[in-house]
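We include the pair:
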Amino acid sequence: MRWWCVLLLAATAAFAPASPSAAAQQAMINADAWSAYKAKFLDASGRIVDNGNGNISHSEGQGYGMLLAYLSASPADFEQIWYFTRTELLLRDDGLAVWKWDPNIKPHVTDTNNASDGDMLIAYALALAGTAWKRNDYILAASRMAQALLAEAVVRSAGRTLLMPGSEGFGAADRDDGPVVNPSYWIYEAMPVMAALAPSDAWKELSDDGVALLKTMQFGPRKLPAEWVSLSGAPRPAEGFDAEFAYNALRIPLYLARGGITDKALLNRLRTGMSQNGVPATIDLTTGRPKTVLLDPGYKIVNDVVACVVDGTRLPVSALQFAPTLYYPSTLQLLGLAYIGEKHPECL
């Protein structure tokens, strides 16, 4: 175990707080903000409740919750969320999590497919917490999930390394237009940690190819990536999905920035394309028209982060005030604030 602990420490040193213990860990999210988030979205069982989606829980939300608990230096909350995750979602034989848990039906899990972004978030959070808090059980669990991801969801196709959104239903054997990917599933900041947990050149290739693909995904008048993209031939919006830049895609610029990928041309193209009068929106890629303008500070902070990275623009006061509303934008807001506080305090 010791050798990959050393690799993990090296991989996380560039962007994770260098903290030998929970007591010494510097919180990237302040206590009041985390308390407000918990009160709104974390129930007593340890599940993160997606109140904008029928109060379901999913592997993405559990991974986000664990990451935010780590960034808040809250090991007890982290363990609570991890307990639900490992007992209610880690039901598959391959070591990955089922993607959805619905409180309104029994059994609560009816679709056992995984979501690779949720798996990566969970493994990433476990690795960071295990390193900071000297929890070898967390690091071991993270290593198992990273190895399972590498085996089940990271594939080579047409000379590129891709992240399948799930282990079933998206490959060339599953769909006429396969492989189909979701570019918002690439969590760039996690890739070096995945490489430490499950050593392989594929992780660096996955990160590099993700950025390269984003540069080619310029669909419609606004030159934006689609939520779901077919890679059978030249990239194009996948069949059976709306050709839109939707809610998942909004986090792509934030993931790029948090992952240290500060290509100004790419970030500016995404920010310009996804905005209506400076405000993020979901976009119909065919017409270029906005479908829903998103005024929540949690959505707007994505553009605020890009403006800080590209132009050194300070965040507006509204971005600094955290009043949780819906699970998803509230999560994005805390991730954005944590990143700016750590990497760009000059923008506060």
